[in-house]
Amino acid sequence: MSDTPRLLAELNDRSREVFRRVVESYLASGDPVGSRTLTRDFSERISAATIRNVMQDLEYLGLLDSPHISAGRIPTQLGLRLFVDGLLEVGSVATADREMIDSTLGDDSPDVASLLDKVGAALSGITRGASVVLAPKHEEEPIRHIEFVHLGDQRALVVLVFADGHVENRLFTPPPGLTPSAMREAANFLNALAGGKTLSDLRGTIQHDIDLRRREIDSLAAALVQSGLAVWENAGEQSERLIIRGRANLLEGTSEVEDLARIRHLFDDLERTRDIADILDLTETGDGVRIFIGSENKLFSLSGSSLVVSPYMNADRKIIGAVGVIGPTRLNYGRVVPIVDYTAQLVGRLVSDRGRG
Questions:
Q1: Which residues partner with 156 through β-bridges?
Q2: How far is it, in rounded angstroms, from Cα 240 to Cα 259?
Q3: Residue 321, strand partner residues
Q4: 95-137+241-356 falls under which CATH superfamily?
Q5: ∠ CA 315-319-323 to the nearest 5 degrees?
Q6: What pLDDT digit, counting tens, does each position of 270-296 carry?
Q7: Range among 131-145, 203-217, 319-333 with highest mean pLDDT value
Q8: Between the CA atoms of 348, 350, 352 and 354, what dihedral angle is there, to the nearest 10 degrees?
Q9: In 3D, which of 338, 341, 333 has the Cα closest to residue 85?
Q10: % of the chain with per-residue pLDDT over 70
Q11: Where do the structural domains in the chain lie, given as residue ranges?
Q12: What ranges make up the beta strands (E) of 173-300?
């Protein structure tokens, strides 16, 4: 990617215009672009031979490729990167797209999980790609209420209600000899302490407060609190945060066996990816939308797809999740980029508002 400014500077006006037209035509049709097609498009009189020479120079630079002998050219991954970095014209999100997103993300969702599922459905439907939504990590959401439920000698349930309406039920092994009164006392203790705090906040202060208020709860309740916090720290207990919608869109209109295998491979990668925070790692180098083309995308081993992704932030401007679109490398970037950007900003506001509710 670091070579793209240098390569762009090496292109004269004619080479740049030929290159731009090849890429735009390819993104629109998916077909190789020939010199005769470009000759018809130019307003000035330029021969097909001249355009062929320019295309050969662009191929020599690694920006174009010939899929078949005597066929037209298509952009390489480097060419697409050069186009996206230096020639892509991105406007505001189209009115129709914005209205569709707004109508889909109304405030009638019962919780953040339902809201984000609607986000994924909206992005997938509007872009005709597969959407990726990374939900906020609820370890960092304020807690509204905690309740312990006794299920038997060796099982108990902690019910966590977060400020944004999200509810999680987590099983854990309670201390031996637990009594219902000790369980209620532990819940009362935590609820008095937890107001506005996150689970992360509680981890840092809980032991100190237990020591100060040891007389207020009996030893079994203290053990229950500590046991419950240990359960919360188990990565395996966390709810799945990655929401993927629109798989069928990537398969739609695809008949080539190789393409079908490639797309299925993408979803195998998605399903194998356990460290889904990688999506956030992709976005944390700066605000706004980022585009990963083919093998640039470290999250997937697939080389034939692009990821357009943007983080969304809470009221404190902290990155808490991400939204994006996966599609073929010939995505309509000029349209998809403002859609992803607008959706990310809208989701950030809606999630922050729910967190304050």
A1: 150, 172
A2: 28
A3: 312
A4: GAF domain (3.30.450.40)
A5: 105
A6: 655 544 555 656 555 556 788 888 877
A7: 319-333
A8: -150
A9: 333
A10: 70
A11: 4-87, 95-137+241-356, 139-237
A12: 242-245, 290-293
Stated as kind and residue range, the H or E segment containing 326 is strand 319-328
CATH assignment of 4-87, among 2.60.40.10, 1.10.472.10, 3.40.50.300, 1.10.10.10:
1.10.10.10
Q: For residues 129 and 328, what is the distance between their CA atoms, to the nearest angstrom?
A: 8
Q: Residue 161 belongs to what H/E stretch? A: strand 156-162
Instruction: Decide if domain 139-237 falls under CATH 3.30.390.60.
Output: yes
- Overall size of the chain counted in residues: 357
Q: Which amino acid is at 245?
A: R
Amino acid at 332: N
Residues 136 and 112: beta-carbon distance below 8 Å: yes
Task: Determine the Cα–Cα distance for residues 30 and 72; give it in Å rounded to an integer.
Answer: 12
Residue 312 backbone dihedrals phi, psi, to 5 degrees: -120, 155
The winner for highest mean pLDDT among 33-37, 61-65, 139-143, 232-236 is 61-65
Per-residue buried b or exposed e for 60-89, using 16+ beta carbons within 10 Å of the residue's own CB: ebebbeeeeeeebbbbbbbbbbbbbebebe
